[in-house]
Amino acid sequence: MAIKPGALLPGDTVGIVTLGSPLSAETIQARIAYLQSLGLNVLLGRYVYSVNGYLAGTDRERAEDFMSVYADPRVKMILPTRGGVGVADILPYLDYAFIRQNPKIVTGYSDITVLLNALYKLADLITFHSLLLIDFRPDTPSYNFEQFFTATSSLTAPRPIANPPGTPLIGRVPGNVSGPIIGGNLTSLVGSLGTPFEVDTTGKILLLEETHEPVNTVYRYVDQLRLAGKLQACAGIVMGECTNCEAAYGKTYEDLISEVIVPLGKPLLTNLASAHGLYKAAIPIGANVNLNASAAALTLLEAAVRY
Prior knowledge:
Blueprint: E1 13-17, H1 25-37, E2 41-44, H2 59-71, E3 75-80, H3 96-101, E4 105-108, H4 113-123, E5 127-129, H5 142-153, E6 159-160, E7 170-173, E8 176-185, H6 186-191, E9 205-211, H7 215-227, H8 230-233, E10 236-243, H9 253-261, E11 268-272, E12 283-285, E13 288-292, E14 297-300
Parallel strand pairs: 1-2, 1-3, 3-4, 4-5, 8-9, 9-10, 10-11
Antiparallel strand pairs: 5-12, 6-14, 7-11, 8-13, 13-14
């Protein structure tokens, strides 16, 4: 069983870091103000405002920020400002033994996907495919905050991971399987292949989602996972949204699911509100879930945090 971090409670301190691409100081400060209005304290990484082209500082600086904030005893949760690109480049410089011995909440999505899955694989830590700092603003749907705070604060289990009302999960290939859930952003997962941080899907429930890619590019990435054996090795598949993914060559994202994912014969659930979409389900990476595609249900079987 994976290691559970301590639950997030009112008044706890959140460590803010920028691990991939930079974000404007104005945006960071506005989001921090909203986070504080929710009753949480903030500690900033040294390089949180750094800009180095499409990266926020050097690889070592971003890794140093993660480890220094993570090591601060006041910090309960690490909240990256955004994803972007470059998160994989900090992974060789992290101290996974220390992280394993001092479990804390780490949350995010997009390019943060590689960090979430690496921490589960190498430190056995449950992480959270959930909100980034950019999401802490007044117009964020209440569903997103409910999902986030339930996942990071509640010991209730089992409990359903459900879409917002009016947006049903869809069972596409029947079956009922359980196992740890992993995955996230498709581009980020494909980028990990052939590295020490390559995702291990064996016996796992695999979550996939994408954004701003034409469907022929999404097909290329899905096919790369298939050729690498990742789709064959998993126990079941949950397809999230492909946000702003334009049709290509007359094929849509739904066509891709029907023609490439369904024939794999794995229990398959689709239409999960996820990551880059307006509504964001909170998925504890490494926690055990039940995927009942026959009943179109995804259930968290264990609490993802501890008191």
